[in-house]
Amino acid sequence: EPEVTQTPSHQVTQMGQEVILRCVPISNHLYFYWYRQILGQKVEFLVSFYNNEISEKSEIFDDQFSVERPDGSNFTLKIRSTKLEDSAMYFCASRLRTGSYEQYFGPGTRLTVT
Amino acid sequence: DQQVKQNSPSLSVQEGRISILNCDYTNSMFDYFLWYKKYPAEGPTFLISISSIKDKNEDGRFTVFLNKSAKHLSLHIVPSQPGDSAVYFCAASAGGGADGLTFGKGTHLIIQP
After folding, report:
1. What CA–CA distance (Å, rounded) separates A15 from A45?
2. Does A19 touch chain B (CB under 8 A)?
3. Which residue on chain A is closest to B87 by alpha carbon?
């Protein structure tokens, strides 16, 4: 069964450093998402991406964040200058098409900023 | 600003009995609702969904009920099995093109033997 994959599973970085989190969505899906879950809190939407551009972004997704689909398979989230409060689980998700609302999530990347 | 609320942080149910997980929402623009199951150190796994034009959707042991007037939905699991022990998230979508999901805080379901 196709699934969303994410790398790395755990990333440790120092405050102020840039990080790139990688995702491979399900191959025939058209919509891509990033979410985060800070420890003990709920899953929060960051950004959605469709047709090679951002469709929607939350208040959390400020200028420090960017997304890219550099080729036909990868979908990346970049944090330019990490802060302590960026420590969280980051989940990538994908959705098949318009009219189908189910999003399928990857296993997540645990980001620890020290 | 909790648009999706799961007021029970945890729920303990005996194996074989019915588990009922509840979710309330405040945003009238939500028109599609989903339930996800999550094990520790894994991503959320899609379970079942329901459109706002329906009041019930069933898939095997899982049934979701939607009461639009009360802005309330529930997930029923019958019969409950040990493998059902996990955190269950209610999520909602306002539809449209690429809307992100709004999640509740989750309910930790514990199935006791």
Report:
1. 23
2. no
3. A42
- Chain A residue with Cα closest to B34: A102
pLDDT at A73: 87
The pLDDT confidence band at residue B97, using thresholds 50, 70 and 90, is low
Report how far residue A52's alpha carbon sits from residue A55's, in angstroms, rounded to the nearest whole number.
9
3-class secondary structure, B84: helix
Q: Which residues, given as ranges, of chain A have pLDDT below 50?
A: none
CB pairs under 8 A between A and B: 67
- Identify the pLDDT of residue B99: 79
Peptide bond into B79 cis (omega under 30): yes
Of the candidates B34, B42, B99, the beta carbon closest to that of A102 is on B34
CA distance A96 to A92: 14
The neighbour count for residue A97, using CB atoms within 10 Å, is 9
Q: Which residue has the tokens 């944090």?
A: A79
